[in-house]
Amino acid sequence: MRPFQYLRPADERAALAAASVEGAALLGGGTCLVDLMKLDVMAPASVVDVTALPYGAVEDTPGGGVRIGALVRNSDLAYHAAIRERYPLLSEALLAGASPQLRNMATVGGNLMQRTRCSYFRDAGVGACNKRHPSSGCAALEGHHRMHAVLGTSLSCIAVHPSDMCVAMTALDAVIHVRGPSGERDIPIVDFHRLPGDRPDLETELGRGEIITHVTLPASPFAAHSRYVKVRDRASYAFALASAAVGLELAGDTIRSARVALGGVGTKPWRSREAEGALVGRAADVTNYRAAAQAALAGAVSRPGNAFKVTLAQRTLVRALELASGRST
Ligand code: SF4
């Protein structure tokens, strides 16, 4: 780990000033940043510890939604009564992530900014990684890419987005609220994470000096019929090979509205409007679930090491839809 300046601003104004300095990195729970600093993958000139800021509450909003402070710990959010009752999908996704110890430290803001687990990215000794060093190449394209993405990839990067929480929030139409030198901005989560394109080093829409203050979720009609299903190499403390977050609004046997997001397969938390379009107005049955899964992965681009993910993601989505609706084969 390289030397750095540690700052712990007492208020928001001081935090925004510190965050605007070139080379600054924000510290919440530290479960990603400190890890990458120890690996010499990230070497910020200053670390701005924002944990003294008043971003730690979960509150109801007018209209039946919820406002989640950026510093709410993943464990606290997962077990919060309002989340368990009105957004059980989010609670399930949070509890599927990492380990209890990490969830006790990790924050909502940090989870939104979580970086990929691509082993080449995390190995500072590997030269070819466009995400660490733009225009250096991508070792994963011809290397070991079993865990890598099949949706949203480019020839510059195929790294998968690792978060479970973000997949659930994507299905729930979350909005990210940020504050920075130019004031406040609200960014729908589907627009918050960028596709890699030819600049995989640019991962989110968060600008220099901006801080995530909170996330809002609109009122959800999906609480009764929603599920997060995660498939991984072992039963806990493993990243997703494929995951699916689904919410269904049913009118009898007909799907009135649907939300579908996938994890473990996309370069960003992957909202599948194609799958949603294949479900809405149709009967809640496995034939239509399979059609939705086909639609969700129709644009997949796989490589020899991760081709299995296409079928796995389809089956994961079908299973999530079956569990959410209570209708299975
Ligand atoms: Fe780097 Fe992305 Fe290639 Fe991994 S997949 S080596 S993060 S450029």
With strands numbered from the N-terminus, the spatial order across the biggest sheet is: 4-5-8-6-7
Query: Can you count the beta strands?
Result: 12
What level of helicity do the residues show? 25-40%
Tell me the strand percentage band: 15-25%
Give the uncertain stretches in residue-range form: none
The helix/strand series, from N terminus to C terminus, equals EHEHEEEHHHHHHEEHEEEEEHHH
Q: Nearest-angstrom radius of gyration?
A: 19 Å
Shape: globular
Could you give a short account of the major beta sheet?
5 strands, antiparallel
How far is the first residue's CA from the last residue's CA? 53 Å
Residue-averaged pLDDT: 97
Name the structural class.
Answer: alpha+beta
SS summary, helix count: 12
Bound small-molecule species = iron/sulfur cluster
In short:
This protein has 329 residues and is an alpha+beta fold. It has helices at residues 12-19, 33-38, 74-78, 81-86, 88-96, 100-105, 108-112, 165-171, 189-192, 273-279, 286-296, 308-325; strands spanning 5-7, 24-27, 46-49, 58-61, 65-69, 175-180, 183-188, 211-217, 226-231, 242-251, 254-263, 270-271.
Name the features.
329 residues; alpha+beta; 4-stranded antiparallel β-sheet; 28% helix; binds iron/sulfur cluster
